[in-house]
Amino acid sequence: QVHLVESGGGSVQAGGSLRLSCQASGNTANCMGWFRQAPGKEREGVAFINSNGRIGYEDSVNGRFTISKDNAKNTLFLQMNNLKPEDTAMYYCAARLTAAACYWQQVFAYWGQGTQVTVSS
Predict the structure, then answer these.
(1) How many CB atoms neighbour CB 9 within 10 A?
(2) d(CA 100, CA 95)
């Protein structure tokens, strides 16, 4: 199994930046990603990275968010720039042991507890 702990959330003004971190432990995850869920909405994928270096972003964050991974420290990051009120949500780190199909929510078996991001106008 993989244990995931997120940190770095907070409240910022529109246009501001935040950097989320996800500390992983346990088995090696070859697929990791960030998801978010706003009140009253379903959880959606934000950004993904697999062990082959393939990266993908949800259209609304492409160009503003950057996903990266420090393999030596088993830590996943999400740099969020030019934040908008629509980015307000609980952000979750997730992992899958297999690298394939690293972008569909249903393939992620391990989840962190979430960290809240609030962007005000």
Answers:
(1) 19
(2) 12
